[in-house]
Amino acid sequence: MSAPVLVINSGSSSIKYQLVDGDTLEASTSGVIERIGQSESILTHRHAGEKHERRERFADHAAGLEAMVAAFQEHGTPLAGSGLIAVAHRVVHGGERFVQPVVIDDEVEQAVERLSALAPLHNPANLEGIRVARKLFPRLPQVAVFDTAFHATVPERAHLYAVPAAWREEHGVRRYGFHGTSHAYVSRKAAELLGKSPKAVNVIVAHLGNGASVTAVERGRSIDTSMGLTPLEGLVMGTRSGDIDPAIVFHMHRQTGASFEDLDAALNKDSGMLALTGEIDMRAVERAAEGGDRAAQVALEIYCYRIRKYIGSYIAALGGADAIAFTAGIGENSAEVRAGALGSLVALGVQLDEAANAAGGPIISTPDSPITVMVVPTNEEGEIARQTANLLQS
Ligand code: AMP
Question: Which PANTHER family match (predicted)?
Fold first, then answer.
């Protein structure tokens, strides 16, 4: 490895990690620590094709990361001898300030903490990982890579909401967009598949995982994206509603007396495919639909129709697209969702090759399709490592 980076994605009760080469973007080791703080936590460590599991209670993120260091020591390369150039942290919200990766110091840490107001479900958990890792690896540069940063190029016409000036000017209300490292990586790979420079092509990326967003990338720059101030806007997701009339919130508050915290949780955690079908996992939804479950069939239609509307509007926003790239758990694996999402876009230049779509690509459109459709596996950790290595080597 010439530029090994330890990439950490810290959630409220879990930490994912990968040791990635910032030059080749290959991961030699990966793992996840789950159920931190519960009676039994699980560490799953993968190295050289082998999986090692450790089950015991890790009381907090510090105990979890210490167990990760021990796992590296026991299986494969001890971190101390791996020539690490940095620890890189995925941070969900960078606000208007962080439009590039940044080396973390006390001031950056405080700024990320202030941004928790915009991402209360994510930034505090990211920050916990940063604090613990700074103590555990005091001599290594710690770098924050922001999910919002790739969308800093979205112009005013797409990032401003028509809301009172004080909301925008005093409270940071605007579209930020998320999944930026994935959209950056996949749009670059899509250009590679077309055999062109990213600066020569327009690409629409549909990142369809548990969270989901679509981005219009014009010559390498994000010019619009479906998530907004928070990851709630846009597509129907596993547990998030995506776009709704905002007045529904006031209506339900008046009707039921539910607090704004309850309504926030309802739209982020109890909506989306879960609310429509009782299932979060798209595989379960597809199985139910195949088995004749009407609610699951309608939910799939809603899911695909929303994606189709975004793709159609982004073809218009870009004035034409060279490629549409599907990525993440659902985008990479569900031929049915991809076909459903592209269904009626033939008039806009999308001709799906059904056999290629069923086989999983990478190219899933016909050779004469004006827009090339592709499946591109995302690599968010690889992109975080690449950006970190670039920052430190520049
Ligand atoms: P991600 O957030 O990218 O890890 O994606 C998670 C989502 O991918 C879950 O909703 C899974 O159900 C979905 N997924 C994974 N594999 C498949 C598959 N073969 N078919 C449909 N959905 C899948």
Answer: ACETATE KINASE, ACETATE KINASE-RELATED
